[in-house]
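User: Structure please.
Assistant: Input sequence and predicted structure:
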Amino acid sequence: MNNGEFREQAHKLVDWMADYLDNITQYPVKSQVSPGEILEKLPAGPPFHSENMDDIFSDFEKIIIPGITHWQSPKFFAYFPANSSYPSVLAEMLTATLGAQCMKWETSPAAAELEQLVLDWLRQMTGLPADFSGVIQDSASSSTLVALLTAREKATRFDINAKGLRDNRFRVYCSSEAHSSIEKGVRIAGIGSENLVKIAVDGQYRMIPALLEEKIKEDTARGFRPLCVVAALGTTGSTSVDPLKEIALICRKHNVWLHVDAAYAGSALILPEYRWMSEGVDLVDSFVFNPHKWLFTNFDSSVYFVKDRQALVNTFSILPEYLRTATQGKVNDYCDWGIPLGRRFRALKLWFVLRHYGVAGLQEVLRSHLKLAAEFKQWLEKDGHFEILAPLTMNVVCFRYNPGNLTDDELNRLNEDLMQRINRTGKMYLTHTKLAGKFTLRMVIAQTNVDHSHVEEAFHMIRDMACN
């Protein structure tokens, strides 16, 4: 392909992209294909000769698109979102065109310095402490692993990096509602699932600080070494918020690293009325949230903040001769701030999004989502056939259909069937969790372009399918 052919094909693709986003509600939100269906339509071996781009794109439309779940549909109410936006997509196009490998400052100075800038913008926007340093990771899961490894190395004066983990007596703590990535992190870090202590939650699904301190004291008395606590600002199941200040004071008292997982809900800190969630954040060691969830920036964009940046760098920095540069120690070489050496130019899309919307514009969209969730909850309550299963903290409504005179087991089966029937229509997409053993439907109202009409349509569909 020469430059002229590239230009022609690129124009066609951009037109298709614009049409796709304009007509996205015409697609089934959740892919309706069966397992193996896509593979059956594709050749088992690679082509020996070059194929025409028109033929390749034709197969993309006919074979690939039916197997796509459309996360950018305003009728996507499942999981947490992986939002995008027009400025973010445009920046991703430029990132792909530049094709820069941004591992060190010298491999693309603009990438490193723009990352430093936008992370400080986000720190200011969310009210995080001035002594926090930020870096873009690929996900909150990786950020949590980075926090655990840094805590491990700082606690042992980097002895495990040098000699390996031998007599493991570490303990890590989180609530019973915390994300599964924490358990994956303790496995990878060599601490082990058996040393992850899950603390019970209260009636609002928040970690109980008194029980946390009790467990820390018990473990210390038994010869264990409390290493890290992971507090949740917005649990995956119900977006409950752990009492951060109380937890932070306990961690400070017992010299335990405190990491905050605010993967989804952290974006709400750009709203002054949600700063209550982060009271005590000045006592925190590390903090993560994902603009790729609720700040309209394409996946992957996870921002990780740490108080002791030198401990972070000392944990991950390895300097073979072929990576030595004249600017070493004078600039931020972000390959030393996390696990991979290779890094994409992820700051560009954040920069585009933050400049396009501005703080006021982002606040406006988030507040509209919060308002829609409050309305949806009111509709459920007014209808009388639904039960709210968790406090509405922000824009995730946890509920179930409850016609009365049924056991919890019967209600679990009833609501699971309801969810599956709804998703089979392709007209919207819901997912679930379990809260106190109850099968709980989660209505997540957070997609970039969702509006009142989409939420109202979803409510009527849920009610009609539940009651018929």
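The mean pLDDT is 96.
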